[in-house]
UniProtKB/TrEMBL annotation:
SUPFAM superfamilies: HAD-like. It comes from Mollisia scopiformis (Conifer needle endophyte fungus). This is Mitochondrial import inner membrane translocase subunit TIM50. The keyword Mitochondrion applies. Residues 74-244 form the FCP1 homology domain. Pfam families: NIF. InterPro entries: FCP1_dom, HAD-like_sf, HAD_sf, TIM50. Component of the TIM23 complex.
Length: 265
């Protein structure tokens, strides 16, 4: 997988500003050959402009640091768990009613466990007002206070034009790691420890959104609102987060052994 990612063509950096603001309608959609979730295929998106950072790829440094044998720890390490909303914890049946949604089975105990055990950031590409509204519903006031940050569409570095378009968003983890408010949530911040690829997990239903740090993505099957969802996905994610916390390098661990939920046959 890493070799494939390394050969992905990096979008041109020689594009002029005037070219970058070319009508978004003329930009091509993301390649269909790449794995798309069913929702992404249905709601096709356009690529972000150069002004919005274009399409990211993992750096050579990132890939090298993930290409090591995972080491078991004597005690679990503290993780930064970044959790997506739509398709991961909930399903929004209609874009016209952005605050109406169905929670995935076991969302409440899953969030309770994550917030009590790890440092949690919620990050959705929905507009912040809708993200805030959804978080106020799925999190108790007490849990909400313990969440390190709630991020919405405003945290993707999108140009003004792209912000209002259906562009493919990319959750660059460097954006999270470089955020001072989140950095200081590391329990050993005072000793120089920081969030990085060894201790961060992105829980998301979109492989494409995790493109820049692919081995920090715990990819969950997309949730479509089935209240009787078979497979008990979130309890399996819960167990897998515990498994990852027992290793010294999350990216090495996920690269070696990606999350594969047991689904009913
Ligand atoms: Mg999603």
């Amino acid at each position: 997988m890493a070799e494939n990612l390394q050969t992905v063509q990096i979008s041109s950096t020689t594009t002029s500003v005037s070219q970058a603001v070319v009508s978004a309608k003329k930009r091509s959609p993301p390649a269909k050959a790449r794995t798309q979730t069913a929702r992404e295929a249905r709601d096709e998106k356009i690529n972000p402009s150069t002004a919005s950072g274009g399409i990211p790829n993992p750096t050579a440094k990132y890939l090298a640091a993930s290409d090591v044998v995972p080491q078991l720890l004597p005690q679990p390490q503290h993780l930064l768990v970044i959790i997506d909303l739509n398709g991961t914890l909930l399903f929004r049946p209609s874009r016209k009613q952005p605050t109406k949604f169905i929670s995935r089975p076991n969302t409440a105990p899953f969030l309770q466990y994550c917030v009590d055990t790890f440092s949690v950031v919620i990050w959705s590409s929905a507009k912040l007002e809708n993200v805030t509204n959804m978080c106020d519903t799925i999190l108790t006031p007490n849990l909400r206070k313990k969440v390190i940050a709630v991020w919405g569409r405003n945290k993707f570095g999108l140009s003004k034009q792209d912000f209002d378009l259906r562009v493919q968003c990319y959750k660059r983890l460097t954006t999270v790691w470089n955020d001072k408010g989140i950095a200081i949530s590391h329990p050993e911040y005072a000793n120089g420890r920081r969030w990085d690829q060894t201790n961060t997990v992105l829980v998301d239903d979109s492989l494409e959104k995790g493109r820049s740090e692919p081995f920090n993505l715990l990819e969950v099957p997309e949730f479509f609102g089935n209240a009787n969802e078979q497979g008990r996905i979130l309890p399996q994610v819960h167990d897998y987060l515990n498994y990852l916390s027992m290793h010294s390098n999350v990216s090495a661990c996920l690269r070696d052994n990606p999350f594969k939920p047991l689904l009913p046959s």
